[in-house]
Design goal:
Largest sheet: 9 strands, mixed
CATH superfamily: Survival protein SurE-like phosphatase/nucleotidase
CATH architecture: 3-Layer(aba) Sandwich
Number of domains: 1
Order of helices and strands: EHEEEHEHHEHEEEEEEHEH
Distance between the termini: 60 Å
Structural class: alpha/beta
Shape: globular
Number of strands: 13
Number of helices: 7
CATH class: Alpha Beta
Bound molecules: manganese (II) ion
Strand order of the largest sheet: 3-4-2-1-5-6-7-13-8
Radius of gyration: 20 Å
Strand content: 15-25%
Length: 257
């Protein structure tokens, strides 16, 4: 068994080391992670400059491969030449904060796992529901329990799969019930934060993510609010299949003069 572990919070993030520790004994582990925090970079690949890889020294990051790029860069490089052998499983996280609902579109944590999935490898993204790393070891134990259970009874059709796991920040995280969920929805982001820099110029900070808008039973938000570990199977196809017919009637065929 070969496992590739990445994240988006950067190679020094406690969540990465915790996930690596939790996976000990599962097989050969390779770790590749961004040099700097790359949260919110989604599936971005760096195409306008070369990338470099160096090997981190000193515990707890000894041997981690570090890339001056994005989470997707990391996994992409690993799977296209940086690793001697292809992994059987790609893991990402543990992220500092939730990746639920719309977060999954912006998340570098989900993107790193998705990069593995796009290369045909099963993948799991892990996030703690709240920022601050509280009860991180319990979250890592919860992650390991999910990994063990999936490996013990993997989907049998040899298709890759992608799971998005959100773990409540609780000391009993590893023994919490699990729920398989769908993504909820957030309200639009909070307003931009406008400030003046030391040179008198106006600068802007992207506002925080909005609160949950669709958080009913069955969603990831609902499960985590009820103290459960949320597991959402993800797909990549963004096609709105239900409206294909209606748009086809409106727009398909020859252009009208
Ligand atoms: Mn992050």
């Amino acid at each position: 068994m070969r496992i590739l572990i990445a994240n988006d919070d950067g190679y020094l993030a406690p969540g990465l080391a915790a996930l690596v520790r939790a996976c000990r004994g599962l097989g050969h582990i390779d770790v590749i992670a961004p040099e700097q925090n790359a949260s919110g970079t989604s599936n971005a690949l760096t195409l306008n400059r070369p990338l470099q890889i160096f090997e981190a020294r000193g515990e707890p990051v000894q041997g981690f491969l570090v890339v001056n790029g994005t989470p997707s860069d990391c996994v992409h490089l690993a799977l296209t030449g940086a690793l001697a052998q292809r992994p059987d499983l790609v893991l990402s996280g543990i992220n500092n904060g939730a990746n639920m609902g719309d977060d999954t579109l912006y998340s570098g944590t989900v993107a790193a796992a998705m990069e593995g999935y796009l290369f045909g490898i099963p993948a799991i993204a892990f996030s703690q529901a709240e920022k601050g790393w509280k009860h991180l070891d319990a979250a890592a134990a919860a992650a390991r329990a999910v990994i063990d259970q999936v490996l013990a009874d993997p989907p049998g059709d040899r298709q890759p799969w992608l799971l998005n796991v959100n773990i409540p920040n609780r000391d009993d995280a590893a023994s919490l019930p699990r729920r398989v969920t769908r993504l909820g929805r957030r309200h639009a982001s909070e307003p931009v934060i406008r400030q003046t820099n030391p040179r008198g110029e106006t600068i802007y900070w992207i506002g925080p993510a909005g609160d949950a808008r669709e958080a009913g039973a069955g969603t990831d938000f609902h499960a985590v609010a009820e103290g459960c570990v949320s597991i959402t199977p993800l797909q990549v196809d963004l096609t709105e299949h239900a409206s294909l017919g209606a748009w086809s009637a409106r727009l398909a065929g020859a252009a009208r003069p």
